[in-house]
Amino acid sequence: MAATLCQVMGFLLSLLGVAGIIAATGMDQWATEDLFDNPVTAVYSYSGLWRSCVRQSSGFTECRPYFTILGLPALLQAVRALMIVGIVLGAIGCLIAIFALKCLKMGNMEDNIKATMTLTAGILSLLAGVCGIAGVSAFANLIVQSFRFTTYADGGYSTFGGANVGGLTGSLTPRYTFGPALFVGWIGGAILFIGGVMMCLACRGMSSDGKRRYDGMAYKAASVHTIYKSDTRPHPAYNDSYKAQSVGGKQSNQRFDYV
User: Which of 23-57 are b and which e, b meaning 16 or more Cβ less than 10 Å from the residue's Cβ?
Assistant: First the structure.
């Protein structure tokens, strides 16, 4: 019962984690403009993995996709790859976990097969969570480095280290800080990792419960038992001793005892 509950909870957490990573990957607010001590308040810019947006004070928002791939920083491309790999691994793990649920009967599938499938799904969820957390952390490190070296009068240092991605450039280059997508990605990756751990623990419980136990029985070869009964027939009485007679007919003193 405990293994089944742990497996179902791990599966639900994995689904929630994959949904969080997908949502974070599609969001545009990975890096948002830092409004603290910002002299320009009429324009608010933010950027994500796939496009950058500018929102004006009137409420009009304009987004522009990144039309280039080779022109983007290598770290940004690596973050894209990590998030996509995390989504793929998490989706495959959830798909395997559906067929491995112990509460569902799938033909004549044995418990040890379901335990192996649960372990596979747990490992895939662990890897997906690690990929998601690594991708978000790498992007956050990129924002921190850009924030440290970007000022409002440096004349063109962009958010992504000179790639002119994510907002305004020129004498008033905005500084960027963490956006909501980063926190969604961190939480989704952590939930996905926890779900993978729970499924791995459930696999251990399922494998121990799934082992068939046979009661040992000792078989002995049939043996022929010989029964001895006491002889109750009357026996003739014998004297305890007899005197042997000599050849000449005389009795001798030699005695013989018969048993």
Answer: ebbebbbbbbbeeeeeeeeeebbbbbbeebbbeee
CATH among 3.40.980.10, 1.20.140.150, 1.10.10.10, 2.40.30.10 for 1-30+74-153+174-209: 1.20.140.150
In the prediction, which pLDDT does 170 show?
42
Encode pLDDT of 96-119 as tens digits: 999 888 777 766 777 788 888 889
Contacts of 23 (CB under 8 A, 6+ apart): 184, 188
Strands, E, within the chain: which ranges? Answer: 31-33, 43-47, 51-56, 61-65, 176-178, 242-245, 251-256
Domain ranges of the chain: 1-30+74-153+174-209
Q: Which of 101, 91, 153, 154 is nearest to 128 (CA)?
A: 91
Tokens of 204: 């251990």
Q: What percent of the chain has pLDDT over 70?
A: 66
What pLDDT does 54 receive?
A: 87
Structure tokens at 256: 């013989």
* 191 CB-contact burial (10 Å; exposed 0-12 / middle 13-18 / buried 19+): buried
Q: Provide the 8-state DSSP code for 172.
A: T
Of 206 and 209, the structure prediction assigns the larger pLDDT to 206
CA atoms of 164 and 223, how far apart (whole Å): 95
pLDDT at residue 255, as a whole number:
53
Q: How many residues does the chain have?
A: 259
pTM of the model: 0.68
